C-alpha cells in the first residue's frame, strides 16, 4: 500500500510517498481502507519535530495522521461490534500510542474502540474532519462544566476545534462570545454564537466572562476578562503560567472516547454539527497539504484522499 511518511524531522518537503506492506488485523483489531485523512496542526508539530518532548521515542520514518474515514476490509478475532464493509470514521490516538500507526495511508490496522459507524449519506472527506477536533471541543467543554447561561469566550472560533465548540456550547445554553478570523465572521455567527468578535478585538475590553476556551491558543491574553474563580481551557501545552488571580487553568489533551465519538457522529449525520473543507488533495500531495496549513488563512480543513 501507499503511505505518506515523514522521512526526517523538518519542513513539508520531508513528507514522501512510500510503499509498505498491507496491514493485517491482530486479535482485537480491524483494518480500515482509508478514504480520507484530515490534516491537523498536531501533524505539523509531529513532522517538524516539535512533538518530540511528548514522544521521545518517535523516529523517522513514520506515518503521521490522527483522523480517518473509510470502510473496514477485515476484522480480527474477538471483534464483535464491526464487520467487513462497514463505513467508519475515527481518531488514531497518535500521541498516546507513540506514533506506531498513522492515517496518512491507504489502510491501517486499528483498535475498533477508536472508531464509530458512519452513515452512507456522509462523504468520507467531511467525516474525516470530525473526530480529533470535535472530541477536543467536547472534552474541553466537559472540563469547563459551566451551567447554562454562563458566558463563554471561545478564541479561534473559525478553526476546527473552535467551530465545533461554538456549536456544542450554543446548543447547551451558553452565552458564546466567539472570536473569528478576519472576513469569517458570518460563518462563525451561523454556528450559533451569541456575539462574534473580530480577530483584532481587544479581549481586555470585553465584558467579564465566566469561562474561556482558548482554541488558538493565545495564552494569558485570552483570560484578561475572566472573572475570579473562572476556568480557562487551552488546546495546546505548555499551558500558561499559573495566574496571580483566583483562576483555574487547564490544557485539554484529547482522549479516545467511543461513546462521545458516536454521539458526535450522530450529530454530524443529523446536520446538528457543521464542518468545512478547504481542499481535498491526493496522498502524494501531503507536503502541499502541510504547506497550505502552515500558510494559514484557510476556510476549512485540508483533507488527504488516499
Topology (elements, then pairings):
Elements: E1 2-6, E2 15-19, E3 30-38, H1 41-48, E4 67-75, E5 87-91, E6 107-110, E7 115-117, H2 124-128, H3 131-144, E8 151-155, H4 160-171, E9 175-179, H5 185-190, E10 195-197, E11 209-214, E12 226-234, E13 248-251, H6 258-269, E14 277-282, H7 286-295, E15 301-305
Parallel strand pairs: 8-9, 8-11, 9-10, 11-12, 12-13, 14-15
Antiparallel strand pairs: 1-2, 3-4, 3-6, 3-15, 4-5, 5-7
Helix pairs in contact: 3-4, 3-6
Describe the protein in words.
- This protein is an alpha/beta fold.
- Helices cover about 20% and strands about 25% of the residues.
- The chain has helices at about 40-50, 125-130, 130-145, 160-170, 185-190, 260-270, 285-295, and strands at about 1-5, 15-20, 30-40, 65-75, 85-90, 105-110, 115, 150-155, 175-180, 195, 210-215, 225-235, 250, 275-280, 300-305.
- Strands 3, 4, 5, 6, 7, 14 and 15 form a seven-stranded mixed beta sheet that branches. A six-stranded parallel beta sheet has the order 10-9-8-11-12-13. It has a two-stranded antiparallel ribbon with strand order 1-2.
- The longest helix is centred in the middle third of the chain and has 14 residues, at about 130-145.
- The chain is globular, with a radius of gyration of 19 Å.
- The mean pLDDT is about 95.
Shape descriptor reads: globular
The percentage of residues in β strands lies in 25-35%
Cα(first) to Cα(last) distance is 10 Å
Q: Enumerate the spans where pLDDT stays under 50 for 5 or more consecutive residues.
A: none
Amino acid at each position: 500500500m501507499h503511505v505518506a511518511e515523514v522521512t526526517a524531522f523538518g519542513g513539508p518537503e520531508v513528507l514522501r510517498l512510500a510503499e509498505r506492506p498491507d496491514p493485517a488485523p491482530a486479535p482485537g483489531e480491524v483494518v480500515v481502507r482509508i478514504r480520507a485523512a484530515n490534516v491537523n496542526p498536531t501533524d505539523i508539530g509531529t513532522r517538524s519535530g516539535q512533538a518530540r518532548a511528548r514522544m521521545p521515542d518517535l523516529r523517522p520514518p513514520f506515518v503521521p495522521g490522527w483522523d480517518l474515514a473509510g470502510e473496514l476490509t477485515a476484522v480480527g478475532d474477538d471483534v464483535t461490534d464491526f464487520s467487513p464493509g462497514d463505513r467508519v470514521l475515527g481518531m488514531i490516538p497518535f500521541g498516546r500510542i507513540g506514533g506506531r500507526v498513522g492515517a496518512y495511508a491507504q489502510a491501517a490496522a486499528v483498535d475498533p474502540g477508536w472508531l464509530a459507524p458512519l452513515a452512507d449519506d456522509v462523504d468520507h472527506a467531511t467525516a474525516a474532519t470530525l473526530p480529533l477536533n470535535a472530541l477536543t471541543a467536547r472534552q474541553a467543554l466537559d472540563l469547563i462544566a459551566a451551567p447554562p447561561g454562563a458566558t463563554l469566550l471561545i478564541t479561534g472560533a473559525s478553526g476546527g476545534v473552535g467551530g465545533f465548540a461554538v456549536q456544542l456550547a450554543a446548543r447547551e445554553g451558553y452565552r458564546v462570545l466567539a472570536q473569528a478570523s478576519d472576513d469569517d465572521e458570518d460563518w462563525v455567527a451561523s454556528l450559533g454564537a451569541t456575539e462574534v468578535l473580530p480577530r483584532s478585538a481587544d479581549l481586555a475590553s470585553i465584558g467579564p466572562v465566566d469561562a474561556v476556551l482558548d482554541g488558538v491558543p493565545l495564552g494569558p491574553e485570552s483570560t484578561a476578562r475572566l472573572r475570579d474563580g473562572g476556568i480557562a481551557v487551552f488546546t495546546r501545552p505548555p499551558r500558561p503560567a499559573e495566574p496571580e488571580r483566583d483562576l483555574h487553568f487547564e490544557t485539554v489533551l484529547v482522549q479516545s472516547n467511543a461513546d462521545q465519538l458516536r454521539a458526535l457522529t450522530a450529530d454530524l449525520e443529523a446536520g446538528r454539527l457543521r464542518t468545512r473543507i478547504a481542499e481535498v488533495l491526493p496522498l502524494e500531495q501531503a507536503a502541499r497539504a502541510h504547506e497550505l496549513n502552515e500558510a494559514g488563512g484557510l476556510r476549512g480543513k485540508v483533507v488527504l484522499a488516499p
